[in-house]
Each structure stands twice: as C-alpha cells, then as structure tokens.
Amino acid sequence: MSFSLMQGQRGGCNRLPRSRRAWLAAAVIAAALFPGAVQAAGAQAGAASQPTGGIATPRPVIGVIDQQRVMADSTAARAASTQRDKFQDVYQAFTADEEKRLRVLDEKLSTERGTLSPEMFNARMTEFQSQVNEFQKLLQLKRRNLERAYAQAITEVQNTVVRITEEVATERGMNLVLYRSQAFLFDPKMDLTNEVIARLNRVLPSVTMTDPEKIDTETPATKKGGR
C-alpha cells in the first residue's frame, strides 16, 4: 500500500483522509526518532520471507477485530444476559423472602429468651443458626450455578466468533488477526468487525442458557468411579 502527501509540482497537493494522514504521520515520526528500529524491522520482514530449514515463512497479512464490540452487538450474547438477569431477579426475591423469615425467627427467639430454660433456648438457637447456615450455602450454590450457566452460553457465542473470524480472514487472505486493543494504528480495510458481527447474528441469532437449577453440581472427583 502506498501513500503520497503531495504532487511533485509546487501548487499541487493531494489530501489524504484524516485517518490515513494520522497513520502516515505516526510512521514518519517513528522513522525519524528510531531509524535503527525501522531498518531492523525491514530486515526482519525480508528475512521472514526467506526459507528457514527448508520451510518458507509466509509474510503476515493482518486483520483486526474489536472483540468487545462484537460481543456487545451480538444478539445471542444479549439474549444470554437477559436470561441471566431474569434468574437474578428470581433469586433476589427468594433471598428477600428467606431473610425476612429468618429475621422473624430471630426476633421470636429474643422475646422467648426470658421464658425458656437455658437448655431449651440453646437448642432453639442452634436450630436457628443451622437454618441460617443452610440458607447461606443454598444462596452461594444458586449464584455459582447461575454464573456457570451464563459462562456456558457466552462460551458458545465466543467459539462461534472464533470460527466466523477464521472464515472471514481466510476469505480475505489474512493469516494473522489481532484484537483492536493490540493495534494502535491500522488501515480501516483491515477491520473485520462489521462482517463478523453480521455473520454471527445470522448464524447464531440467540442462545438458550441452561437452567441453573439443573446444572450438575458434582465434581469429577465426587462422581461414581472418580478418583
């Protein structure tokens, strides 16, 4: 790709688009400040095309993708987030009801303390604390399973993104794809984001999150035959 700032004639001047002028300006500054690094990079690029051990190393043809925007604009990822929010609303309501019930029991124990024998009071306090512990364990399990179910749904979306990105890159003759955050400046023609989003929403318009209540909570070590 070649860029030119002005014609050879004194009065002629071809203006480049602002993004390309910024790209070229950065390259010119880098060449002026670090001439040795630029020469070394050129030497490495030339060496990369030379056979090494009988195998020719291909020259990099680079693409760029904005992973955050892909996930933000994915209808499937949005569907997974919506489903997770609904489960969270249910769990929050359950938590509020259970906390209210335990609060009533605690207040009742406080009022009965003066009328119960120490043994009876201690027995009821132990039972109350057991209910609190069980509630906390159940709540932690629900939250953990919810995050597992959501992670499974998002993983399905991400795996599809990888497959589609590979397809688009292959079609464009690219052999290296970088995240947008890894590329400070790049030609907009290298950006695969819009095409990946369009194909992703066609191939995977939605995703169904597993019901957290149905997730197997056993670990491999606790399953039958596990070691």
UniProtKB/TrEMBL annotation:
Alphabetized GO MF terms: unfolded protein binding
Keywords noted in UniProt: Signal
A GO BP entry: protein stabilization
Signal peptide segment: 1-40
GO terms under cellular component: cytosol
Family matches, as Pfam families: OmpH
Protein family (similarity comment): Belongs to the Skp family.
Superkingdom: Bacteria
Keyword Signal in record: yes
SUPFAM superfamilies recorded: OmpH-like
Source organism of the structure: Novispirillum itersonii (Aquaspirillum itersonii)
Record-linked InterPro entries: Chaperone_Skp, Skp_dom_sf
Keyword Signal: yes
UniProt-recorded name of the protein: Skp family chaperone for outer membrane proteins
